[in-house]
Design a protein that fits this description.
Layout: E1 5-11, H1 29-37, E2 44-49, H2 59-70, E3 75-77, H3 89-95, E4 98-102, E5 107-108, E6 121-123, H4 124-131, E7 149-153, H5 157-167, H6 170-173, H7 180-187, E8 193-197, H8 209-216, E9 221-225, H9 234-241, H10 244-259, E10 269-274, E11 277-284, E12 292-303, E13 311-322, E14 325-328, E15 332-333, E16 351-352, E17 355-359, E18 366-373, H11 376-379, H12 385-404, H13 418-428, H14 436-451, H15 463-471
Parallel strand pairs: 1-2, 1-4, 2-3, 4-18, 6-14, 7-8, 7-14, 8-10, 9-10
Antiparallel strand pairs: 5-15, 11-12, 12-13, 16-17, 17-18
Helix pairs in contact: 1-2, 1-12, 5-8, 8-10, 14-15
GO molecular function: oxidoreductase activity
Protein name: NADPH:adrenodoxin oxidoreductase, mitochondrial
Catalytic activity: 2 reduced [adrenodoxin] + NADP(+) + H(+) = 2 oxidized [adrenodoxin] + NADPH
Length: about 475
């Protein structure tokens, strides 16, 4: 059964369009999902709003992928549109046969422990947005001068990239597209020691090989890992058998622990991997009231007999780790929008293979016709690129199947307004919609500014600057 459908994908984040190059993706799955849709035999027009958040090393690859999709004749791009402000989800569902939500996870998880309100604590997301020039964090201004020690809670790829920025020579950073205000601050930074703290052991480290190799490869860096932390249980060995990535990560950590000097040389920058510890509370400085001076860590042990499912359990043995800055890299959290079913405990939209469900308690569950989810909003902030591709492919397969089964067949002989209806609503509300050509102007201007400084690009770091260039 051939059905002429219109589809709207709201992607990456519910903010104005900006290619913020952050270190762990806040969802660029919408580009993948739309790419798959263009390859299946659906008679549909695809309307896209997406904000990309990419790591430095993925920048050009994914920008190129996104550009190919956005420039496709069956795809339209709407920038400077905010879901929930410019237009509601309910209105989108009235305008389109299908709405795909892929706006990712733009908030931070909280630890919920004493002292989390102290100055000197930041989320890794904020820090990443700051040094990558995201307008919302332009004025974060982390204090890099008052301490020589930073603690990063977490050992995933974002945590490693934050450590890399803090420890990498600024002469090397100067030729990347790091924002100028962040580079200037890092050039004056006094931080020489970075501690990466994880609840579990090296076998369970959540990073991947490439990111670990990059931070371990920093010039003249002293790396410290307790050799006893590298001891493995039979369950650990079984975990390593089941994952090539974990094996390679474990091999790199073991090599780093055994190949370097036993002590740092004078003035050498230091990276310490701290395993089997979880934060209990943040300690307040006695000299600077209201500021962090350290983290109290509780030693942990692993419990569980199933490989891949061991959990860290506290032992009631504590130790204090002094520092003047803490960066929390404990995960991202999606934010619900009005009219969208949401599992607050899991931080995701309840779904079955991408189909949004409104009541999971029913048998069968109640499915929201024409409403789909993709990426971190669908499954949580986990996975690598391959995971993202499979996720997008699954959601698109569900849409295709629903079309073939007639589930998305219009109940009226009149087609839904689609693009024209959306433009009319936005125009009535005086929303300045930016087409894809506006993004291309921003990209071109940033590259022009960067070329004079031997950089790939020089970020425009305020909304006013971005919108001014986009309007030229």
């Amino acid at each position: 059964m051939a059905v002429r459908s219109s589809l709207f994908s709201f992607g990456a984040e519910r903010t104005k369009i900006y290619y913020c190059l952050t270190l762990l993706g806040l969802d660029w799955f919408a580009a993948y999902s739309i790419g798959f849709l263009l390859c299946v035999s659906l008679s549909c027009k695809i309307f896209l709003l997406i904000k990309l958040s990419l790591s430095e090393n993925l920048q050009q690859v994914v920008v190129n992928q996104f550009s190919r999709v956005a420039q496709h004749q069956r795809c339209s791009f709407f920038g400077n549109v905010t879901l929930g402000l410019s237009i509601s989800l309910a209105e989108l569902r009235e305008l389109y046969d299908v709405v795909v939500l892929a706006y990712g996870a733009e908030s931070d998880r909280a630890l919920g422990i004493p002292g989390e309100e102290l100055f000197g604590l930041h989320s890794a997301r904020e820090f990443v947005w700051w040094y990558n020039g995201h307008p919302d964090c332009r004025y974060l201004n982390p204090d890099l001068k008052s301490t020589d020690t930073a603690v990063i809670l977490g050992q995933g790829n974002v945590a490693l990239d934050v450590a890399r920025i803090l420890l990498r020579p600024t002469t090397e950073l100067a030729t990347t597209d790091i924002s100028s205000h962040a580079l200037a601050a890092l050039e004056e930074s006094n931080i020489r020691k970075v501690y990466l703290v994880g609840r579990r052991g090296p076998v369970q480290a959540a990073c991947t090989t490439k990111e670990l190799r990059e931070v371990l490869g920093i010039k003249d860096l002293y790396v410290h890992i307790q050799k006893e932390d590298l001891l493995k249980t039979p369950i650990d060995e079984e975990e390593l058998k089941n994952s090539r990535i974990q094996r390679r990560v474990n091999e790199l950590l073991a090599k780093a622990a055994n190949s370097g000097p036993s002590h740092p040389s004078s003035g050498q920058r230091e990276l310490h991997f701290v395993f089997f510890r979880k934060p209990d509370r943040f300690l307040e400085s006695q000299e600077k009231i209201g500021y962090v001076s350290g983290v109290r860590l509780e030693k942990t042990v692993l419990q569980g007999d199933e490989p891949g499912k061991q959990i860290a359990v506290g032992t009631k043995h504590f130790e204090d780790l002094g520092c003047g800055m803490v960066l929390k890299s404990i995960g991202y959290k999606s934010i619900p929008v009005d009219g969208l079913p949401f599992d607050h405990r899991k931080g995701i939209v309840p779904n079955i293979q991408g189909r949004v469900i409104s009541d999971a308690r029913k048998d069968p569950p109640s499915i929201e016709k024409g409403l789909y989810a993709c990426g971190w909003l669908k499954r949580g902030p986990t996975g690598i690129i391959a995971t993202n591709l499979y996720c997008a492919e699954e959601t698109v397969a569900s849409i295709s199947e629903d079309v073939e089964r007639g589930i998305l067949a219009p109940q009226s002989s009149l087609p839904k307004p689609g693009r024209e209806g959306l433009l009319q609503v936005l125009d009535d509300r005086n929303v300045s919609v930016l087409p894809f050509s506006a993004w291309e102007k921003i990209d071109s201007e940033e590259k022009r500014l960067g070329s004079s400084r031997n950089k790939p690009s020089e970020k425009l770091v305020t909304w006013d600057e971005l919108l001014k260039v986009a309007a030229e």
